Amino acid sequence: MKNSTVTGTGFKFSRLRDKRTELANPKEYPLVIAFSGGRTSGMMLRHYLDTEKEKPIVLFANTGKERDETLDFVHEVETQWNINVVWLELDIVKTDLEKIKKYPSTRTRKNLIPKKTMLWYKQVNYETAARHQDEETPFDKVITTRQILPNAVSRYCSSEMKVRTMQRYLWDKGIYRMRNAIGFRSDEPDRGYDLLHSTDRDKMVSLEFPLMKLGVTVEDVTRFWEQQDFDLQLQPHEGNCHLCFLKKRRSLLLLLSSRPDLAKWWKEVEESKSVDCHGAGGQFNRNFTIEDLLKQTKDYEFDIQDTRDAMQCACTTAMSLAEIKEEEGGDTNGQNSRPKPGPKADSKRRTPPQKKRPLPKKKPNSAKR
């Protein structure tokens, strides 16, 4: 293997710390890396393999709509670097009290007991992992539990198939307190800041941002993989997920111009779901459908410049296992999750009573001359 030293040229965020963790000594707990199958995530993994005495727990959650090149890359990482990558997929199983006991939230356990089925995980490997050509994938399963398709507002594809699937695996192994390494670079500091100051994250998970502290930028990631014996065989605009709705339109058009076959499943799901939802929630992107994109690829002038994703998703880098706590109210199993209509708000705007200002005192009359 060629030189694998992880170095950075950007600004080092030495003060970026997790001040709100409840773990007094984080180093005493296992290190968990949620490997996304991307270059940045892989570079961070190499850093820990070179610096940690104990090997980390490396998890990869497959959605069934990952690019074949991504699955090949994950397999290359585990074989070339001689590490154990745990391959996971979301699964729907019959309600099992033993599995329910693994959930840390009492409220969640009570909500799951009366259900016939529950979301869980299953462990696979490179050979048995779901591929996009399969009739049923984890993506198909999670859509059946929802009334709408995932979109930029309701990104349950990432939360359910990635984060919570990994959480369930860890809980099943009795791991509730851990160190979680996040693959954010120093040229994207807002992501780390937002995560640290999130009010919803689990404080029992200690967050680490090694690439930020090393000052690693996207250029450093590119140079790192140029020095390796293998690399992810995808262009930056392609991404791990076939037609992720967080990509810019021009990125999707550029991708579909060379791989129109990738649109088949996404187009069919939109057409079937739009009937079920009567048009509402039946699209991955509210601004256009997959059918619209296929029509536009014929006349579109492509420019590979500025094809970075409009938004970052947890699928693009190592994700946070503390970012999404298990819901403690409502339907925590992800089923029938459309919010119920609440009572109508009072049409009259209520404002707090204002104190009356005291009248100004009259000036005393001047004495008559």
What does the secondary structure layout of this molecule look like, with pairings?
Elements: E1 31-34, H1 39-51, E2 57-61, H2 68-80, E3 85-94, H3 97-100, H4 106-112, E4 117-124, H5 138-144, H6 156-172, E5 178-181, H7 189-196, E6 205-208, H8 210-213, H9 218-226, H10 249-258, H11 263-276, H12 290-296
Parallel strand pairs: 1-2, 1-5, 2-3, 5-6
Antiparallel strand pairs: 3-4
Question: What brief labels describe this structure?
Answer:
single chain, 369 residues, alpha/beta, Rossmann fold, 2 domains, 6-stranded mixed beta sheet, 31% helix, globular
What's this, in brief?
The chain is an alpha/beta fold and 369 residues long. 31% of the residues lie in helices and 9% in strands.
Distance between the termini: 107 Å
Number of helices: 12
Task: Give the strand order, joined by hyphens, for the main sheet.
Answer: 4-3-2-1-5-6
Number of self-contained structural domains: 2
**Class by helix and strand content?**
alpha/beta
Q: Tell how many strands the DSSP assignment holds.
A: 6
Residue share in helix: 25-40%
What name is given to the CATH topology of the largest domain? Answer: Rossmann fold
Which outline best applies? globular
Using the 3D structure, state the CATH architecture of the largest domain: 3-Layer(aba) Sandwich
Elements, N to C (H/E)? EHEHEHHEHHEHEHHHHH
The low-confidence runs, each spanning 5 or more residues with pLDDT under 50, are 14-21, 327-352
Structure description:
With 369 residues, this protein is of the alpha/beta class. The chain has two domains: 1-235 and 311-332, Rossmann fold, CATH 3.40.50; 248-308, no CATH class. Helix content is 31%, strand content 9%. It is built from twelve helices and six strands. Strands 4-3-2-1-5-6 form a six-stranded mixed β-sheet. β1, α1 (39-51) and β2 form a beta-alpha-beta unit. The longest helix has 17 residues, at 156-172. It starts with 30 loop residues before the first strand and ends in a 73-residue tail after the last helix. Mean pLDDT is 79; it is low at 14-21 and 327-352.
